[in-house]
Design a protein that fits this description.
This protein is 56% helix and 8% strand. It is of the alpha/beta class.
Length: 502
């Protein structure tokens, strides 16, 4: 009703001014500018309620429980404890415990941070609102701060309407909203938005009618402002790391429970070959294996489908381009150099060798770690450097020259050499890598690489005939398993491995 009255009064005023002879064009121009500004703020969320918040509750109809998340037992334990604080406030108040105000989920991409937040919403029986960090930042000063106020106020209002005593706000990619103040010199919109978030989190107290818990997710906690990370705001920082062997087994079981698996599938073996995979990688692996089975018109997923999927997830899809005959031989010899050195350093370490182009690689070897490792010795790092150098050394010894195909290998070898130096395991002793003179650092890296290159050359010379034979077989088959390589190498490798390395 008020809108119609306003329109009528406005039109009457305009007609009256025209009748009196006034020039109304400047007035119309300024009114148009104000109308456009209103529409922009209205669309961006500066005036209306936070648009993405409304959608979040409807998405939760298909609820996710903590049982649907594998490989994150410690993270789930921390989160469940915090959620129990807001589920049973009467018990924690007897112990003098204040509810936690914020939980930060920190970890690499694809490890399940968003899934944990969704499971938290189902478990806590609380009002759940979600938004992305980028939705709080705009070019208009004050809009971001207004949105922060809105999301906290809407959380409280929604909880009261639904007769709930708690609400959870989830902010994904919170480093955009909570980045260190002063890091954006162009304008102060970022700082104003962060300041408002700090005020809102500090304003939460035990006397609030609604207990609000903020859950943030990030893979760049180093960008967050220190004031946001202190206790009293983010009370707990929960690490959501890459899953270990047991965790990968759990995730694979979850993602294959609705897929028809052949009896020859050994998920433990597949989990062992996927060291470094996140939960998202493993979900993609199971999905790609199913797609491969469908493409083969197979009713069940076989182990070959999973091994093909592992290669695809790591390196990408197969490419149509095929190198010429001479290039194929060079690529095969290069990959056999890597594989031979790997088998000498760590018997039974090669899972597969292929010269099928994938992504940016014309060929690659896939190693099978015996167990998950999180710290590395000098011997291990030197062994990895030797494996990386094996391809180029093998090319030079068998074909008389090296190629640009070893460029990435050399970069990785240099990084591993720097890790040896920075860890105090080089001839320099305990040093600060960044304070070393450039010449000294270069000479130490060269010393490490040269020592490993000499060891690799001796192995290549010793097994030159086997490398040539296997390389031609690899060209014919395009892909061979590590077991076949070990069969071709024979018993002499098994008996002399320790002597060769020591």
């Amino acid at each position: 009703m008020l809108k119609e009255v306003g329109v009528g009064v406005g039109l009457g005023t305009v007609i009256g001014l025209i009748w009196l002879g006034f020039n109304i064009y400047p007035i119309l121009f300024f009114v148009g500018i104000l109308f456009l500004l209103y529409k922009v703020l209205d669309t961006k969320g500066g005036i209306k309620e936070f648009s993405s918040i409304k959608k979040s509750n409807s998405k939760l109809k298909k609820s996710i429980s903590f049982d649907d998340i594998g490989g994150q037992n410690s993270a789930k334990k921390e989160l469940l404890e915090a959620l129990d604080f807001i589920r049973i406030p009467e018990k924690i108040s007897l112990m003098g415990i204040r509810p936690l105000k914020g939980i930060l989920l920190e970890g690499p991409p694809g490890t399940g941070k968003t899934l944990l937040a969704k499971a938290a919403a189902s478990y806590a029986d609380s009002v759940f609102l979600s938004a992305a960090g980028s939705e709080f930042i705009e070019m208009y000063a004050g809009v971001g701060a207004q949105r922060v106020r809105q999301i906290f106020q809407q959380a409280r209002n929604s909880a009261k309407k639904k007769n709930k005593t708690s609400a959870i706000i989830f902010v994904d990619e919170i480093e955009i909203l909570g980045s260190k103040r002063g890091s954006h010199s162009s304008h102060h919109e970022y700082d104003q938005t962060l300041n408002q978030l700090l005020v809102e989190m500090d304003g939460l107290s035990l006397n609030d009618e609604v207990c609000v818990l903020l859950i943030g997710a990030t893979n760049r906690s180093d960008l967050l402002d220190n004031a946001l990370l202190r206790p009293g705001r983010f009370d707990r920082i929960v690490q959501v790391d890459l899953p270990d062997l047991e965790g990968r087994m759990q995730i694979l079981q979850l993602h294959t429970r609705n897929k028809p698996l052949e009896n020859d599938i050994n998920l433990e073996s597949i989990a062992a070959e996927t060291f470094g995979f996140s939960g998202a990688h493993l979900e993609s692996l199971a999905n790609e294996a199913a797609i491969s089975a469908l493409r083969d018109k197979s009713k069940f997923l076989h182990k070959n489908h999973f091994y093909e999927a592992i290669d695809k997830v790591i390196m990408g899809a197969k490419l149509d381009k095929r190198p010429g005959k001479d290039e194929c031989l060079r690529i095969a010899i290069h990959e056999m150099g890597h594989a031979l050195v790997s088998e000498c350093i760590k018997p039974y370490s090669i899972a597969a060798i292929t010269i099928v182009p994938r992504g940016k690689a014309m060929g690659f070897i896939r190693q099978k770690p015996e167990k998950d490792s999180y710290i590395y010795t000098k011997d291990y790092l030197e062994g990895q450097i030797a494996i990386l150098l094996g391809g180029a050394v093998c090319e030079e010894e068998l074909l008389g020259s090296r190629s640009t195909g070893a460029g990435n290998d050399f970069q990785q070898a240099i990084e591993l050499s720097k890790k040896i130096i920075s860890s105090g395991m080089s001839s320099l002793g305990v040093v600060s890598e960044k304070d070393l003179p450039g010449g000294t650092l270069h000479e130490c890296i060269k010393e490490i690489l040269t020592a490993q290159e000499e060891k690799v050359l001796q192995l290549i010379i010793k097994y030159k005939d086997i490398i040539e034979k296997t390389a031609y077989y690899l060209i014919e088959k395009e892909r061979i398993n590590g077991s076949y390589l070990r069969e071709l190498l024979g018993l002499d490798i098994k008996n002399e491995v320790e002597h060769e390395i020591k």
